[in-house]
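Researcher: Structure prediction, please.
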Amino acid sequence: MTWYIVDGMDGSGKSSAAEALKDMLESDGRRVFIVTHPDQGCWFGRAEARFLKIPGKPSEIIATMLYILDAVQSVMKMRTSRVRYDDFIFVRYIMAVAYLPDGIYRKAYDIIERILPMPDVRIMVDVDADTAFDRIESRGEDREIFETREKLRKTREKMISLTRGWYIIDNNGSLEDTIRQIGHVKDRVENGDFTPETDDDA
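Model: Predicted structure follows.
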């Protein structure tokens, strides 16, 4: 079993990248479980989605805490479903801490990394803030509390500062290029390389 997480800020294209990975794995005959957070099938996920629409710092912190509980519930579901699936994909997991205030997010990341189970493969889908905002606007839905240009810029900076040991997928280009990058990650994992290249590998 391989456990992937596909993370990134709102509007980055996480869901599309995760679906591309799922399609690749299933084309190899693997059985894939995929869950997106907030998980609407879970009370914590539904409550989180409501708080994401309410402006203010308290709502931001509550939404992040509910998100963590939502993710924990998914981990429990994964553990009870191991025999039925070959691979698991979580869309969003630990990078939600980047929505916390500046003085908290890095400590929260370190604590959660020690407390929660960690995936085999970490993938961050990255886009610039303007591209993410334009994609969010094109949905025609009510924007969430973190979905302003300025908050997206800050969130992206925080996420990038936490990406040691992550594969970073540049999703500013074409869908074909994103799929090619996802395929590269999949190939490395199949060869037993669960972490991205470092400067020493170059």
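Model: Residues 55 and 187 are 42 Å apart (CA to CA).
Researcher: Thanks, that helps.
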